[in-house]
Amino acid sequence: MAREPREPRRSARLDQPREIRRSLMPTPTYDPEAFGRFSERIARFIGTGRFLVYMTVFVVVWLVWNVVAEALIFDDYPFVFLTLMLSLQASYAAPLILLAQNRQADRDRVQYEQDRARAERNIADTDYLTRELASLRIAVGDVATRDFLRSELRQLLEDIDGIGVRQADAETVRDQR
After folding, report:
1. Is 169 in the same domain as 139?
2. According to the model, what pLDDT value does residue 9 have?
3. What is the tally of structural domains in the chain?
4. HSE toward the beta carbon, residue 138, CA cutoff 13 A
5. CA angle, corner 168, sides to 166 and 174, nearest 5?
6. Average pLDDT of the residues in 122-127
7. Percentage of the residues of the chain whose pLDDT score is greater than 70
8. In a domain, 9, yes or no
9. Domain enclosing residue 170, as ranges
10. Same domain, yes or no, for 96 and 167?
11. Are residues 137 and 50 located together in one domain of the fold?
C-alpha cells in the first residue's frame, strides 16, 4: 500500500482571518447598544431622589425588622447580610454608571465635533460675505451715487429751462419784428 502524501500543515498567517471554530457551547452574544441603553436607564434611576428614598426605606425596614422582631431575625447585629447586599448593589451600580458616563461622553464628543464644524462653516461664510461686501464697497465707489445723480439731473433741468427760455425769447423777438 502506497501512502498518500500528507497535506502540508497550515501555519497561522497573520494576514488572513482565522477560521471559525465550532464549539459545543455557543458563546453568548448581546447587543452592546441595548445593554448601553439599559445601563443608562439604571444610572438615571440611581441618580434620582426616588432611589434614595427607596434605598433609605429598604435599609430602615431591614434594621427595624432585625432589631425589633426577635422571632423573625435573619441578620444579627453587625448586619453582615445587609452590608453584603449594599456592597453587591454598589458593585453593580458603579460599572453601570461608568458605562452610562462613557456613552454620554461619546455623545458629547460627537456633538462638540458637529458644533465645531458648524462654527468653522459659519466663520468661512462670514469671511466670504465680508470679502463680498468689501468688493461691493469698492465697486460702489466707482459708481454714481444718488446725490451725484440728483445734482446732475438738476443741472440738466436748469440747462433745459435755460434753453427753453432762450427759445421763448427768440420767438418773442421774431414775433416783435
Report:
1. no
2. 59
3. 2
4. 6
5. 105
6. 96
7. 92
8. no
9. 145-177
10. no
11. yes
Min mean pLDDT across 54-58, 122-126, 136-140 is at 136-140
Q: Return phi, psi of residue 4, to 5°.
A: -80, 145
What amino acid is encoded at 125 in this protein?
Answer: D
- Tell me the C-alpha distance between 43 and 37, whole Å: 10
Separation of alpha carbons 99 and 93, rounded Å: 10
pTM as predicted = 0.53
DSSP letter string, 35-84: HHHHHHHHHHHHTSHHHHHHHHHHHHHHHHHHHH-GGG--S-TT-HHHHH
**H helices within the chain, ranges in order?**
32-46, 49-68, 80-141, 146-176
- 32-43 mean pLDDT: 91
Q: Do 54 and 123 fall within a single domain?
A: yes
Q: Same domain, yes or no, for 118 and 60?
A: yes
pLDDT digits (tens, 9 = 90+) for 12-31: 777 887 777 777 777 788 89
Same domain, 120 and 154: no
User: Cα separation of 111 and 105, whole Å?
Assistant: 10
Residues 83, 167, single domain; the answer is no
Do 112 and 99 share a structural domain? yes
